[in-house]
What does this fold into?
Amino acid sequence: MLVVVMLAATTVASADVVAGPSRKDIRVERKELRQDRKELREDKKELREDKKELREDKKELREDRKAKREARRKELREKWGDVVKQPDARAELTVHARRVARLAQARKVAEADGKKELVTRIDKLVEKENARHQRVMDRLKEKGSGGAP
It folds into this structure.
């Protein structure tokens, strides 16, 4: 008699496990999964389009870069003359270009974040760097022309 009671208890317990979620619950879950997959596909499509736009923008920048570089070199030659051929002047131009580029990037980030006070500070630093660069280049120009007979 004891054996029969244990079998009955085991049968009832396994029936609860076998039953699991209802068909309706399964359908709802599948529908939700399909919707999630659809949203993921749409997100991936948007990302692909964004990447494509970024690639096109980078390509345009690359093409413009060479023309801008040549224009800048011509401008420097006109402004400073033969001074730009001196190693010290070239080093100064490199330092100045790097500093201004870093400040420009920082300004762009600060503007994107809406930090007006930081933009103002960066603008002051750009002015300060430009003044420093002007002093150094003037000194190099005087040094270069002063030594000539």
In short: The helical segments are 2-19, 23-80, 87-113, 116-146.
